[in-house]
Amino acid sequence: MSQIDGLPPLRDVIATHQLSAKKSLGQNFLLDLNLTAKIARMAGDLTQADVLEVGPGPGGLTRGLLAEGARKVLAIEKDARCMAALAEIEAAYPGRLEVINADALEVDPLAHLTPPIKIAANLPYNVGTELLVRWLTPTDWPPVWESLTLMFQREVAQRIVADPGSKAYGRLAILSQWRTDPRIVMDLPPEAFTPAPKVWSAVVHIKALPEPRFPANPATLSRVVATAFNQRRKMLRSSLKGVSLDIEAHLTAAGIPPTERAEQVSLEAFCALARSLDSAKG
Ligand code: SAM
Predict the structure, then answer these.
(1) Cα(155) to centroid of ligand 1, in Å?
(2) Which of 111, 142, 251, 256 is the most exposed place for a label (fewest CB within 10 A)?
(3) What is the pLDDT of residue 280?
(4) Binding-site residues, ligand 1, Cβ < 6 A
(5) For residue 136, how far is its CA from the centre of ligand 1 (angstroms)?
């Protein structure tokens, strides 16, 4: 029995259900339930919230979230081999865990949850960035979720919180910092996982702001930033040529020297550029 609940230790769960880790599914499991409970606490008070977890695997973080009092956890796992292990957790927490055996990129789980909603996950590295971008780019703001508490490879976490001028600064930093307050709240060495990955990981806590820091249309900002950072070493007047015939005038109107490179441009200036481009459309 573990210290946080009456269920067996995760090593036994993995052995019983023969859950040998699959690299293709990004499976690096957390087996220390004290650690998963600590990550769950970083999501804040869960007692009044529904929590979406992507990729519960054998259920380490799921058990942490439930032990920390989550009102409900909706867990979406692609690997059918994990279903029996997750059913045991469902039985131990009646009515509080719902499991969907699906690809998280294919379902819209937020429609099945009641606000306030928090998202907490040790994300598979191969779909983590795509899911984050989807959660960050709804048309309407504030989003349906209050906060994201997500484990990433540390290099990805650093891209989320990066400042202008740094190597890690790019699309992820801008999309994250425009409408949220992202912070790295924990670093984890490879040995925290089974099997151990090659690189360090980090937990990022991302709190949705009530409104964007600066006005801009999400689709325009997304397109401009993606195009600008696609050729990050080029001057903006050249990398953004395809965005508008008058790009130099729009850059100047936004207060950005046309010879500047994307990595030097602040979030505020990118928002001004998106607004200038939209105002030209009428
Ligand atoms: N939450 C567990 C933990 O912390 O030990 C497992 C984390 S492991 C890094 C990622 C999990 O995501 C695996 O269980 C994997 O099977 C699952 N997964 C991978 N791709 C997925 C997808 N597209 N949709 C849902 N789950 C996925």
Answers:
(1) 19
(2) 111
(3) 87
(4) 25-30, 54-57, 60-61, 76-79, 103-105, 122, 124, 127
(5) 20
Q: Are strands 29-30 and 193-194 parallel, antiparallel or unpaired?
A: antiparallel
Question: Whose alpha carbon is nearest atom 5 of ligand 1?
Answer: 29
pLDDT tops 80 at residue 57:
yes
23: exposed, middle or buried (C-beta count within 10 Å: 0-12, 13-18, 19+)? Answer: exposed
pTM of whole model > 0.90? yes
CA of 123 to the centre of ligand 1 (A): 6
Strand partners, 122: 151
For residue 253, the surrounding DSSP H or E stretch is: helix 247-253
Chain segment 200-256, per-residue pLDDT in tens: 999 999 999 999 999 999 999 999 999 999 999 999 999 999 999 999 999 999 999
Q: Which residues neighbour 281 within 8 Å (Cβ) at sequence distance 6 or greater? A: none
**3-class SS shares of the chain: helix, strand, coil, % to 5:** 40, 20, 40
Of 11, 22, 27, 28, the residue with max ligand 1 atoms within 8 A of its CB, to mutate for a pocket test, comes to 27
What is 2-208's CATH superfamily?
Vaccinia Virus protein VP39 (3.40.50.150)
What integer pLDDT is reported at residue 282 of this predicted model?
A: 63
Closest residue to atom 17 of ligand 1, CA basis: 55
CATH superfamily, region 218-280: rRNA adenine dimethylase, C-terminal domain (1.10.8.100)
- The answer on pLDDT for 36 being more than 70 is yes
Q: Which of 52, 76, 79 to mutate to test the pocket of ligand 1 (most atoms within 8 A of CB)?
A: 79
Decide if pLDDT at 146 tops 90.
yes
Q: Where are the domains of the chain?
A: 2-208, 218-280
